[in-house]
Amino acid sequence: MHLFCKGWRAAAIVAVAVALSAGAANAQSGNATAVTGTVVDASGAVVPSATVEIHNPVSGFDRITSTDASGRFSIPNVPFNPYHLSVTGQGFASYAQDVDVRSGVPLNISISLKVAGSSESVTVEGGGDLVENDPSFHTDVDRGLFDRVPLESQSSSLSSLVTLTTPGVVADSNGLFHGLGDHADNSFSYDGQPITDQQSKVFSNQIPPESIQSMEVISGQVPAEFGDKTSVIVKVTTRSGQGNTSPHGSVKSSYGSFGTSSVGFDLAYGGQKWGNFVAASGLNTSRFLDPPELRAIHDRGNEENVFDRVDFQPTDKDSIHVNLGYSRSWFQTPNSYDNLNAGVTNPITGGMVGPTDQRSEIKTYNIAPVWTHLFSPTTLFTFGGFVRHDDYNYYPSADVFADGTGLIPGGSSATVNQNRTLTNAGLRSDISYVKGIHNVKVGVTFEHTFLRENFNFGLTDPAFLPSSVDANGNLCFVGGVAVAAPCTFLLPIDLTRGGSLFPFHGRTDVKQLALYVQDTITTGNWAFNLGLRGDLYRGIVHDSQLEPRVGIAYNIKKTSTVMRVAYSRIQATPYNENLILSSLGSQNPTVNAVFNGANSQAFAPIRPGFRNQFNAGLQQAFGRFLVVDADYFWKYTRNGYDFSIFGSTPITFPIAWHNSKLDGVSVRASMPEFHGLSAFVVLGHINARYFPPQIGGLGATIQTGQPFRIDHDQKFQQTTHLQYQPKKNLPWVSMNWRYDSGLVASNTNLGTFGDALAFLDADQQTAVGLFCVDSGGTKHLAALNNPLTSSTCNVLANGQPTGSATRIVFPKLGTFDVDHNPTRIAPRNLFDAAVGDDNLFHGDRYKWSLRFTAVNLTNKTALFNFLSTFSGTHFVAPRNYTAELGFHF
């Protein structure tokens, strides 16, 4: 191991030294490149003013340019994908060919046009241009397609977009999504910059959707260049100003339900050698997060985003690309009716405490410069750096006793405040080589993440200490005196008895080094993705892993069929958010007492895990207007990660179970535009089984237990999207239909209707729509002022009360099983629609647009989750409307 570590350090030093001596490079970004070429006639004379168009019918990507006086053309920022390229010129026959953009190495094409009356085409007949001979299952979406998708969350638009357009992704509350059964095991690549920390809006801020040009979402075989969080990899290509010789942009403003207002602008400007794209936006709403009640209470929030991309090409072989971003969000923690604290008094002053008033603020900045240098038409060198910083603050109520006094069943007995920062800095370098059947990429990535966690915690429930017991089961607080642990540690932080807040301060850093080599080999009808990655992890714990990646695809061109199989070995890394508290907190006796009472708690820092992942899939085109792509996955992970909460407070932290076994099916069907109509359908089925004991993080034990379905297991989900525009100068309409069969309701006490009567208070009963019928046949619904009891409902001969719920589904009596038949959220169908006109007054240089969006058209009352260990209870947004006016130039 000592020699292995030395080798890694040497490799990193060499990579940096080579990068510094190489200079700059000529790629557009880490996820895109330039398609260039020259158009000539049969005699070899250049053809100026020829029209060149590149198009992908599945993703919706489409760009048009013209050749200059020397017959040259350049289309920058083209994402990796197969494309159909066509050229037309006055007096010449049309020309078409298929081109495959698979590397950062710029693609240069020489095109010879024939005189009118003849034609030349090297296109693939039938559905050949719809299928990709790629061993990795993925989804491609360009701005031309997703710009008209009605999104269910304006404050986390990127997450909403991924959820709606990607198969195998389970929707959760607050912009969180679970890829292929894992808890938020997702990573993002912004123009090649790796981001593996959580991006939901309760942890960080996302880039504005105005800055996104296209997305490729990988949910199949994992290429060797990616690691850490790999269930879903979102490769984002941002918008560029290069090539825009006159300013282009837009100014938009919207207003809608919940008092939601937004304003934003974007501007692209540049030349053939440089460009600048900038976007800025702001949002204010009274429903920022998904609340625990149907009616949002104490749920205001706002966010501001600024993004700037600069491109500069000093020479034909060198280019510089810089991404800059800053985001800020401020939002209240939504209250339940219980949090209104009606009749709750301050145990010190005797006055009313008032409603809970907890708030958060997150500030994020990002800087990511990249140099690339083209050594030859086949070899491209890339060197980049990045710094991303999150500053998270959680603020308690002004009266700390409003945060919880223990009077609410299941409510908080404590108050907490927190400041947490995460700074991720790193360097990345790679060499791409494309020649013949090979597409090789060799690279190194070094990341250094600095973590700081500070929070203050205090007990606010006067009954907490008197009810606590020691290791022998005896009361440990007698006669106002703490006589044994854990009371001896809890009394100093009991604010009802003159105690003070307990401070927790933690700092650490995590160093990660990855080396990888991958080669995509295309020969005949075969395609092979071969890769090897090595990961070195140096954080609170140390680990390393060699990870082979193998994928094989075969294209049956006659039937437009692609079959594929793949294997990936992956080192999974712990979540960084509150990692110090989770891994080291049990060493502190006060933290141990708060979290685990008198029970002993194992010191178990969270270790990196390892995963074996298998994929098998089939892609089939039906003519030129339908392509279906299906993938089966099976994943075994040692150290299956999840989240828990600290003492019924908003502080969440990562934990690790012994292992997880996940499998399922993902399907996507796409219909390219046909007479103005386009559509796609994404489907998913996911089994997510986790196996005790908990082996990492606060609460780790040596006990075993029954496997269970975690609360991102879902039998079926689907999204159907349609959009139609009869002509380009006419209005358009689009629609979503989203169906979710229901996540697991993770509270294991809710196996029957009788359990709900016993354990749920009036507010919780109302949230799930609990109801029953009494012995006289009268139906009773739970209400805030009238909870159901066993005396209200008819009781069967076996002593079980009869009843059910409208928003959760209980298993049949006697069949509840946390692994095979858990209680689930009730199925839901949600319909969204949008209608708009992109050129209201049929202008040429200046255009006005108008859009009207309706989300949850049928006003379905439904839950995302209920009493989730990680996030609690959250309602789906009721029907809401948004009108947007835009000016484009």
Average residue-wise pLDDT: 90
- Helical fraction equals under 10%
* Unreliable runs: 1-27, 119-126
Distance between the ends = 60 Å
What global shape is seen? globular
Find the count of extended strands (DSSP E, 2+ residues): 47
Our count of helices gives: 8
Structural class: mainly beta
Gyration radius, rounded? 29 Å
**Proportion of strand residues:** over 45%
Main sheet: strands, sense, barrel: 22 strands, antiparallel, barrel
Short description:
The chain has 889 residues and is mainly β. The chain has eight helices and 47 strands.
List keywords for this structure.
8 helices, mainly beta, 22-stranded antiparallel β-barrel, single chain, 889 residues, disordered N terminus, globular, 50% strand, five-stranded mixed beta sheet
Structural overview:
- The protein is mainly beta and 889 residues long.
- Helices cover 7% and strands 50% of the residues.
- The protein contains 8 helices and 47 strands.
- The chain has a 22-stranded antiparallel β-barrel. The chain has a 5-stranded mixed sheet with strand order 3-2-5-6-8, with no helix packed on it.
- It is globular.
Strand and helix map with partners:
Blueprint: H1 2-22, E1 32-41, E2 51-55, E3 62-66, E4 72-79, E5 81-88, E6 95-101, E7 107-113, E8 120-122, E9 138-142, H2 143-146, H3 157-165, E10 169-171, E11 177-179, E12 186-190, E13 193-195, E14 212-218, E15 232-238, E16 248-256, E17 260-270, E18 274-285, E19 301-315, E20 318-332, E21 359-376, E22 379-395, E23 414-435, E24 438-459, E25 477-478, E26 481-482, H4 487-490, E27 502-523, E28 526-538, E29 542-556, E30 561-572, H5 579-584, H6 589-596, E31 609-621, E32 627-645, E33 652-674, E34 677-696, E35 708-709, E36 714-724, E37 732-740, H7 753-759, H8 762-768, E38 770-773, E39 779-781, E40 803-805, E41 808-809, E42 824-825, E43 828-837, E44 847-855, E45 863-868, E46 872-875, E47 880-888
Parallel strand pairs: 1-7, 6-8, 12-15
Antiparallel strand pairs: 1-4, 2-3, 2-5, 5-6, 9-14, 10-11, 12-13, 14-15, 16-17, 16-47, 17-18, 18-19, 19-20, 20-21, 21-22, 22-23, 23-24, 24-27, 25-26, 27-28, 28-29, 29-30, 30-31, 31-32, 32-33, 33-34, 34-35, 34-36, 36-37, 37-43, 38-39, 38-40, 41-42, 43-44, 44-47, 45-46
